[in-house]
């Protein structure tokens, strides 16, 4: 029960932290709006004018932050005794980084973590340490590897495939959920997939050997599944059929069937339990998670903070529902995705 309780606690803590950060960010947006007008009323979640205003304020905050970063970079470069070409190159890099979207910055951060861990695996003297802390073995007492193994890859092909999947499918899910909810879902799916794989491997240890596992595949599968739910008619090319584009609404069931066959026939190349678990968690969260987990959580966090701060602070007293303003085309449609034409 230790790994299961650890996984549940870690996932719950991740969502709590993400929800708290989200609530604080939304409060900052609300304060900026109130500063621009003293005649705001408190609207409900369906009020499109307020959602639009929140979206504009967030965009303006990003623009202001980018301008401040570039101005600071320009001052620092002016004070450096470097050749003009090098200064120009550094400026171009800084400009590129600051022009990245919120989704790209989030994904770049996750990829950077995976890249560092992948690089550490290539240091021979660290192999023993990496095997101890970044490789999960069912039956081991190190529960932390349920998390650390989600960022761990030994083989270049495995690392590249997962990072391409993270960048490709992560953008779609990130734009739909927002940064905080995306990170909570991604980590939750990765840890959850490892916990399920751990339990299933131990349950079947008499019929198959216990094998160590690592990689972000469980979390990536959750992103693939989430994208398939939102855009079932979008096409991808599977690695074993690279020249044939397949609609996601058909590709996802095919991938899940492949992993089910892997479990049935005891294939050892991949952690098929984690793959199936990740896809199932992605489907479950995109179908029910925002309604039954994220939205109630944000409401509770906001109400709790409002009570602590008191109504005399001049802030919203909790009747406003904090939500990420989305573009109309980003709104999710969950049902009937296998049968859409």
UniProtKB/TrEMBL annotation:
GO terms for molecular function: serine-type endopeptidase activity. Signal peptide: none annotated. It is a multi-pass membrane protein. Pfam families: Rhomboid. GO terms for biological process: signal peptide processing. InterPro entries: Peptidase_S54_rhomboid_dom, Rhomboid-like_sf, Rhomboid_protease_S54. The chain crosses the membrane at residues 6-22, 106-123, 183-204, 211-231, 243-265. Its main location: membrane. Residues 144-286 form the Peptidase S54 rhomboid domain. GO terms for cellular component: membrane. It is found in: Membrane. Keywords: Hydrolase, Membrane, Transmembrane, Transmembrane helix. It comes from the Eukaryota. Belongs to the peptidase S54 family. This is Peptidase S54 rhomboid domain-containing protein. It comes from Rhizopus stolonifer (Rhizopus nigricans).
């Amino acid at each position: 029960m230790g790994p299961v309780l650890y996984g549940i606690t870690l996932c719950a803590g991740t969502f709590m932290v993400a929800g708290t950060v989200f609530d604080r960010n939304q409060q900052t947006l609300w304060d900026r709006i109130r500063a621009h007008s003293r005649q705001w009323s408190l609207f409900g979640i369906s009020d499109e004018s307020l959602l639009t205003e929140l979206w504009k304020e967030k965009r303006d905050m990003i623009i202001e932050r980018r301008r401040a970063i570039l101005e600071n970079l320009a001052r620092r470069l002016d004070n450096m005794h470097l050749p003009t070409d090098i200064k120009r190159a550094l400026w171009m890099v800084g400009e590129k980084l600051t022009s990245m979207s919120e989704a790209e910055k989030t994904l770049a951060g996750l990829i950077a973590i995976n890249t560092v861990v992948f690089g550490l695996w290539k240091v021979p003297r660290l192999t023993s340490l990496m095997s101890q802390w970044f490789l999960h073995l069912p039956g081991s007492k190190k529960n932390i590897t349920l998390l650390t193994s989600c960022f761990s890859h030994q083989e270049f092909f495995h690392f590249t495939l997962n990072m391409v999947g993270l960048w490709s499918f992560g953008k779609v899910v990130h734009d739909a959920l927002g940064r905080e909810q995306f990170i909570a879902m991604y980590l939750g799916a990765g840890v959850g997939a490892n916990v399920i794989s751990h339990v299933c491997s131990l349950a079947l240890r008499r019929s198959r050997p216990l094998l160590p596992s690592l990689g972000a595949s469980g979390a990536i599968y959750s992103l693939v599944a989430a994208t398939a739910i939102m855009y079932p008619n979008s096409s991808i090319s599977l690695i074993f059929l690279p020249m044939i584009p397949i609609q996601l609404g058909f590709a996802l069931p095919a991938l899940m069937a492949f992993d089910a066959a892997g479990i049935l026939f005891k294939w050892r190349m991949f952690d098929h339990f984690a793959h199936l678990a990740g896809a199932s968690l992605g489907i479950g969260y995109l179908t029910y998670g925002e309604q039954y987990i994220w939205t109630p959580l944000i409401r509770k966090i906001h109400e709790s903070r409002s009570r602590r701060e008191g109504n005399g602070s001049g802030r919203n007293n909790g009747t406003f529902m904090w939500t990420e303003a989305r573009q109309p085309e980003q709104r999710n449609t969950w049902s009937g995705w296998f049968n859409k034409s």
